[in-house]
Design brief:
The complex is a heterodimer. By secondary structure, chain A is of the alpha/beta class. Chain A has a domain of 214 residues: Histidine kinase-like ATPase, C-terminal domain (Heat Shock Protein 90, 2-Layer Sandwich), CATH 3.30.565.10. In chain A, strands 6-7-8-12-9-10-11 form a seven-stranded antiparallel beta sheet, sandwiched between helices. In chain A, strands 1-3-5 form a three-stranded parallel beta sheet, covered by helices on one side. A two-stranded parallel ribbon of chain A has the order 2-4. Classes of the chains: A alpha/beta, B alpha/beta. At the A-B interface, α5, α6, α10 and β13 of A face α2, α3, β5 and α4 of B.
Chain lengths: 320, 115
């Protein structure tokens, strides 16, 4: 496998990086970088950690003269690869800046990770809401559907000046096409991504309302959080990638079909066995989480009204 | 329908301030909610102290209950001390569970009961 780290990789330009990924010869990993300076989105670090971890350390080659590779050391990449960082760094205090690469294999590990998230990032309670929500749903998807013994690899970096947190969550499991095809006929990876992002579609059943453990709403919620807050969201599995682009209209309309949102897509990327998810959450412009949930609730209500095509009164839960 | 008492489940003790662990939700549903409903008890889910919940958690907690007992089971369930986030999530799940089918009087009885 070969990976080149160019000058800069963020969600907006990640297509170019993904196109350059070479998944052949999975028992070897060669990493090169821009010679002087680079910065890559946390999702890229998760990808390298996920594919590099099973490779024997003697088969991992990292060539970089860039001074900024200390960033990779601080994020814990060399620990995952099992190779020395080849440089001394001054360890800065971790809190307030980033969440290093972390492997999550069980439900309890996820709960513990989420409990540490807020103090680790020094965030206000209201800021942490969409972050822990998104991470919880994405990692639980991995734990429940990927069938990977390696679980999920997660990392995040907080940019105080932009009030932005960038998050990556990656697995090397079955992939979305394989899991969705348990319940739906899918022709290709892009179709599988579209279905996975559509509310009410889950690989566990084709029954409306989902199964007892899955409703097929998790990815739709995350896409909606990103759409409403004008944040980018990328999901890549198999040969396909779907990227939700920032909303340009001030008018908010939730749509069931992700292809009706402002997006870009690719269907001929190098094959990724598993799922790669990247999301940026801007804290300054984040809509109140309760307002966002109101929008989602209204979306479901409209869908029900359209389906019933008649006056229908919903039964309400009793709150006291 | 005559009720045989009330069971209160304090969610904070099982899930902490962020209710997201679906395994815990499944255990509460199987071990506490469904047995109480079988005994014709009213179930109070007390969310005091819970700051937030995920849709997946609430789905794992109550969707199968609604499916088994139909939507009228909401008459036998009370959601106590929910903040706005939790209220919204619970409402979203109860709403979309009604997308599946419109309840009728004949459906009001539990779909299946175990003795």
């Amino acid at each position: 496998m070969r990976i080149h780290l160019p000058n800069s990789v963020f969600l907006g330009n990640i297509n170019h990086f993904l196109n350059g990924f070479d998944p052949s010869e999975p028992d070897k990993l060669e990493i090169t970088s821009h010679p002087k300076w680079f910065w890559v989105h946390p999702v890229v670090l998760c990808m390298i950690a996920a594919i590099g971890k099973p490779v024997r350390p003697e088969n991992v080659r990292f060539e970089s003269l860039a001074r900024t590779k200390h960033y990779l050391t601080r994020m814990g990449l060399f620990d995952f690869l099992g190779i020395p960082p080849d440089m001394e760094i001054e360890q800065h205090e971790q809190a307030g800046r980033f969440v290093p690469l972390t492997q999550i294999k069980t439900s309890d590990e996820l709960t513990e990770f989420l409990q540490e998230l807020q103090p680790l990032l020094h965030l206000q309670p209201e800021d942490v809401e969409p972050i822990r929500y998104s991470i919880s749903e994405l990692v639980r998807n991995v734990l429940e559907h990927s069938a990977s013994e390696e679980g999920a690899i997660v990392c995040a970096q907080y940019f105080p000046n932009k009030k932005m947190i960038r998050i990556g969550i990656v697995d090397t499991g079955l992939g979305i096409r394989r899991t969705i095809s348990d319940s739906y006929a899918v022709q290709d990876d892009l179709s599988a991504l579209r279905l996975a992002l559509t509310p009410g579609i889950t690989g566990t059943t084709n029954r409306p309302g989902g199964s007892e453990q899955n409703a097929g709403a998790g990815l739709f919620f995350i896409k909606t959080i990103a759409y409403v807050n004008r944040d980018p969201f990328v999901i890549y599995s198999g040969n396909a990638m779907y990227k939700l682009l920032k909303r340009t209209s001030s008018h908010i309309v939730l749509r069931a079909n992700p292809l009706d949102d402002r997006h870009s897509k690719e269907s001929n990327l190098p094959h990724w066995q598993g799922v790669v998810a990247g999301i940026d959450i801007g804290l300054e412009k984040t809509k109140e989480f309760t307002e966002l949930l109101d929008l989602i609730r209204n979306f479901y209500w409209q869908s029900i009204k359209e389906k019933k095509k008649e006056k229908y009164r919903l039964r309400k839960p009793k709150f006291v | 329908m005559k009720r045989n008492g009330n069971v209160t489940i304090k969610m904070i003790e099982a899930v902490g301030t962020f209710a997201e662990n679906k395994d815990v939700a499944r255990d509460i549903r199987r071990q506490q909610i469904l047995p109480a409903l079988e005994q014709k008890k009213t179930v109070t889910l007390d969310f005091a102290g819970v700051e937030s919940a995920t849709q997946s958690f609430v789905h794992a907690l109550i969707s199968e209950v609604i499916r088994q007992y139909r939507i009228d089971v909401l008459d036998q369930m009370i959601f106590k001390s929910c903040n706005d986030v939790v209220k919204n999530i619970v409402s979203i799940v109860t709403d979309y569970m009604q997308y599946e089918e419109e309840p009728t009087e004949a459906d009001a009885k539990p779909k299946r009961t175990r003795r």
